[in-house]
Amino acid sequence: MRAEGRPLIFNLHHFALDDGPGIRTTVFMKGCPLSCAWCHNPESVSPEPEIAFYGHLCIGCGSCMDVCPEGAVSMRPGRDRITRERCTACGTCSNECPSTALRTVGAYYQVDTLVERLLKERIFYDTSGGGVTFSGGEPAIFMDYVGTVMKRLKAEGIHVAIQTSGMFNLQEFGRKLLPYIDLIFFDLKLIDSDMHRKFTGRGNNLILENFRYLADNSPVPVVPRIPLIPGITATGENLSGLADFLRYSGFTSATLLPYNPGAISKAAALGKALHPTLPNRMIPAGEEEALTTFFRQRLSGHAKEAPLSEDIGAVEYLKQSKKHKEVFSDECLEHPCCSPHPGIGRGGLLIVPLHACNRSLRRDCSRNIS
Ligand code: SF4
Ligand code: SF4
User: Fold this and answer.
1) Where is the domain boundary, 65, 87, 105?
2) Which residue, 127, 131, 151, 155, is CA-closest to 20?
3) pTM of this prediction?
4) Centre of ligand 1 from the C-alpha of residue 70, in Å
5) Ligand 1 pocket: which of 58, 93, 95 to mutate (most atoms <8 Å of CB)?
6) CATH classification at residue 86
């Protein structure tokens, strides 16, 4: 188990090009106050160490079963190697595994060790205008540790960025982290607080309050980011609401993050499952472009209505999802109860965004979303 005050890191991503300006090292912290149903980094949600099992790498040697002190390993073909309820994540099996099929996720770095590792790449930061980005999980739940590392990096003249869910204590953030940050990537997911609670485990009031405060008062740039999750965040209703919120907060741009289906297999390796309707493929380029165009127009105050394309997209994802049949029946998608719902029934095509179904349609549908 994790010792108190010892936050874990699950990845040091070297030479990152997408996490801020220039070439960067991204520090992925383990632990998050949210548990998003689509989390692109499912290994980041728990602050505790975990064991990942990649079945395609296993050579069947049985070493893991021999060494496990808890009897938590079994060799059942096609099943998770680990009985998760018994596993204490001691790491004995992953140390013994000759093929890296078993891996311990999460390691503690002393502050000195981490700073030293990060500074080894300063030549790349200096020559590219890059630096270090803290991500997760949620780095702002480890204010003392992260603040200490940031302060050391700032003293060395390194550019520091943070990617945050916005779920943090603002006073503490302002005192312990903000003085050492050059750039804030602030994630916004769902504008409706009930929806936010349903799909992330927490309402969004604190997040929106923190965002508004930093939008008005931050001495460094704040870049809003919105993940495009088919049928959940990537709906006309949600993108309209978020665009309006941003526009009223004085923003004229935001980053839309593409959906990453790779999270499904990452979660499976940890014995977890993401939301059953998430598709196993990326959003097609045309759909993503339509979403982006609509969002930008709405952000600039020029689009009043959600376009047809992204709502249709949500249905297509549901239809194509392998899990679709477990969640919806055909009747569910075609039942006339859908059509009066604003923004759902269009052009003879009945469209069921997840939230709409859950709120008002489930009594009439033959199968429901859990
Ligand atoms: S991490 Fe430890 S307890 Fe868990 S399966 Fe491996 S050896 Fe057993
Ligand atoms: S030790 Fe690794 S390779 Fe050997 S059976 Fe266990 S998971 Fe497979």
Assistant:
1) 105
2) 131
3) 0.81
4) 7
5) 93
6) 3.30.70.20
Q: Determine how β-strand 131-135 pairs with β-strand 24-30.
A: parallel
> Which amino acid residue places its CA nearest to atom 4 of ligand 2?
61
State how far the Cα of 363 lies from the Cα of 337, in Å rounded to an integer. 10
Q: For the chain, how big is the Rg over CA atoms in Å?
A: 22
Question: According to the model, what pLDDT value does residue 32 have?
Answer: 97
Residue 61's domain comprises 50-105
Same domain, 89 and 204: no
Q: Over the stretch 188-233, which tens digit does the pLDDT of each residue have? A: 999 999 999 999 999 999 999 999 999 999 999 999 999 999 999 9
Residue 308 above 90 pLDDT? no
Going by the DSSP 8-state scheme, the letter that residue 359 receives in this structure is I
8: β partners: 30
Instruction: Say if residues 65 and 73 touch (Cβ distance below 8 Å).
Output: yes
Give the binding-site residues of ligand 2, using a 6 Å CB cut-off.
Answer: 58-64, 81, 96-99, 101-102
DSSP string, 170-223: HHHHHHHTGGG-SEEEEE---SSHHHHHHHHSS-SHHHHHHHHHHHHH-SS-EE
Mean of the per-residue pLDDT values of the chain: 84
Neighbour order of strands in the sheet with 159-164: 8-16, 24-30, 131-135, 159-164, 183-187, 222-227, 255-257
Place of tokens 């923004």: 343
What pLDDT score does 113 carry? 98
3-state DSSP assignment of residue 59? coil
Q: How many residues does the chain have?
A: 370
Whether 165 contacts 180, CB under 8 Å: no
Q: Residue whose CA is closest, atom 1 of ligand 2?
A: 97
122 and 55 together in one domain = no
Helix (H, G, I), strand (E, B) or coil at 161: strand
Q: Determine the Cα–Cα distance for residues 24 and 198; give it in Å rounded to an integer.
A: 34
155 & 200 share domain: yes
